[in-house]
Design brief:
Oligomer: single chain
Distance between the termini: 75 Å
Helix content: 25-40%
Shape: globular
Function: Probably deamidates glutamine residues to glutamate on methyl-accepting chemotaxis receptors (MCPs), playing an important role in chemotaxis.
Catalytic activity: L-glutaminyl-[protein] + H2O = L-glutamyl-[protein] + NH4(+)
CATH class: Alpha Beta
Protein name: Probable chemoreceptor glutamine deamidase CheD
Low-confidence stretches: none
Enzyme class: hydrolase
Strand content: 25-35%
Number of helices: 3
GO molecular function: protein-glutamine glutaminase activity
Order of helices and strands: EEEEEHEHEEEH
Length: 199
């Protein structure tokens, strides 16, 4: 007697752009290109659920207050909460979540005017991610942050590995152009929110 062949599940593939996040069940592969932006890769191994975001804290000056309390920091917290809440809705448990973080390179600064000397947007994003995860109690089990490089990452649900290829800054112009547009858009959004009068 011949058995019917077992169907192979289709692997979900998603490429993330600045400002996006995505959650997927196994089997799935999530990928993105990073310059000064950061991506947090979250997973719940008990239900084989993974998630990734891609965001940037848009600020032009080092914040005098805590980064988590700044306008840019509040945006970053929102980006993290969107990802986490989306995973919780699909059955993840906060205490089971594990994180890997990438990006935060000093790539964007060379393409933006009027930034203070030695001001690194990437560094601010890197510090935000590390502090947020620490204060939220989510273990950061792997990271590759900072430096003067871009990164291409691929997050696989098979074993929660993140495969990374480093991109020299001289080859990261395309990434910087996308992030510059995203950066300027977020700055404008923050300014518009400040100008709103509430009744």
């Amino acid at each position: 007697m011949n058995n019917f062949p077992t169907s192979v599940p289709t692997v979900e593939k998603k490429i993330l752009h600045p400002g996006e996040y995505h959650v997927a069940r196994h089997p799935a592969v999530l990928s993105t290109l990073l310059g000064s932006c950061v991506s947090v890769c979250l997973y719940d191994p008990a239900i084989r659920l993974i998630g990734m975001n891609h965001f940037l804290l848009a600020t032009q000056h080092p914040a005098a207050e805590s980064i988590l309390e700044s306008d840019a920091g509040r945006y970053g917290m929102g980006a993290m909460e969107l990802l986490i809440n989306s995973m919780l809705k699909k059955g993840a448990r906060r205490e089971r979540l594990r994180a890997k973080a990438f990006g935060g390179g000093n790539v964007l600064a060379t393409h933006l005017e009027d930034l203070p000397a030695r001001f690194s947007i990437g560094k601010i994003n890197m510090e935000f991610v590390q502090r947020y995860l620490r204060e939220d109690g989510i273990p950061l089990v792997a990271q590759d942050l900072g430096g003067s490089i871009g990164r291409h990452i691929r997050f696989e649900s098979e074993d929660y590995s993140v495969y990374m290829r480093r991109i020299p800054i001289r080859s990261a112009a395309q990434i910087a152009v996308k992030e510059k547009h995203y950066f300027e858009k977020e700055l404008k959004t923050q300014q518009e929110k400040k100008n709103v009068d509430f009744w």
